Amino acid sequence: MKKNGKMIPCKICKKRIYVSVSRIKSKKTCSKNCRDKWMSAIMRGKNRNGKMIPCKICNKKMYITPSLIRSKKTCSRNCHAKWIGTYPPWNKGIKYKMNPKKKIGHNIPCEICNKRIYVTPSLEQKKTCSIECFSKWKSLNAKELGYGKWMKGRKRSKRITEKIKITKLQRIKDGWVSPSIGRPSWNKGIPHTEEHKKKLKETRKYQKSTFTSSIEIKIQNFLKQLGIEFFTHQYMKEIKHGYQCDILIPCMNLVIECDGNYWHKYPVGNEMDHIRTSELLEKGFKVLRLWESEIKTMNINSFKEELALVRCK
């Protein structure tokens, strides 16, 4: 491709630069700095109404047109930012003085400490001078204002309780949602089908529970001290009524169950617990069931004795 431009010297630094045909008349310099210098030189040569003034920060001379004489004080953005930071605000050191002739409000005494306070028409309800006085005044006049602990120990009348119920039900019908409870689940009150129950059981078989009770942790610590290997929440698929046992010791073929007194109905025990123990014994497992009350008073020596009794069986 043929180049139609030509090489010309820069007007300031005399550096050779290539200029295309379309820019021969306009381009005279090699860079922005040279262009600024060249333009300032042209401005000085012409009889313009502007003038050369020093920058307020770096004292660099710059040409300013008549339209910018009042506003422009610096040569660049950096200098302008520094100059704005040093320039004081117009109202620095000037104290605001209220004109006594234009006073609209009036002075009133505080209802707690009797200190005189100025109140404007928009603050006519103001009764105290500070937050501390306001809290005292609020506690004294809580019954009249309708809040506070003045209702503590008293019962609502039947009329008011019925009114509250009706308004709450109406709000729920209109679409109000409690921020603490949230929206009710879409399947609330709908019974599960048997197919769905089977699917739930299959999925929950191998979902290891993250919760371990304090009595389980105590037995686990005893086993660690004795150096016995064990597994927690292992699914027992060998029996008909499969479930996740508390502790399984594979080397002894032993299942340890830590039963809480409340949930497992001490001292009788749950019917399902009895069924599962019989099924485990039929399949060749040894079962050790310990009640919560026993574990709390148990030490490592008594736990060793319990394990010895199970081994002998």
> Mind telling me the C-alpha Rg?
45 Å
Strand content: 15-25%
The description of the largest β-sheet is:
4 strands, mixed
Strand order of the largest sheet: 7-8-9-10
Q: Please state the second-level CATH architecture of the largest domain.
A: 3-Layer(aba) Sandwich
Mean pLDDT: 83
Which features characterize this protein?
313 residues, alpha+beta, 4 domains, 10 helices, 10 strands, 35% helix, 15% strand
Structure summarized in a few sentences:
This protein has helices spanning 32-45, 77-86, 131-140, 142-145, 158-173, 194-204, 214-226, 271-282, 292-297, 300-312; strands at residues 6-9, 16-19, 51-54, 61-64, 106-109, 116-119, 231-235, 244-249, 254-259, 286-291. It is an alpha+beta fold and 313 residues long.
What would your notes on this structure say?
The chain has 313 residues and is an alpha+beta fold. It folds into four domains: 1-47; 49-82, no CATH class; 104-142, no CATH class; 213-312, 3-Layer(aba) Sandwich (Endonuclease, Chain A), CATH 3.40.960. Helix content is 35%, strand content 15%. The chain has ten helices and ten strands. It has helices at residues 32-45, 77-86, 131-140, 142-145, 158-173, 194-204, 214-226, 271-282, 292-297, 300-312, and strands spanning 6-9, 16-19, 51-54, 61-64, 106-109, 116-119, 231-235, 244-249, 254-259, 286-291. The strands form four sheets. The chain has a four-stranded mixed β-sheet, with helices on both faces. Strands 1-2 form a two-stranded antiparallel sheet. The longest helix has 16 residues, at 158-173. It starts with 5 loop residues before the first strand and ends with a helix. The model has no long low-confidence stretch (mean pLDDT 83).
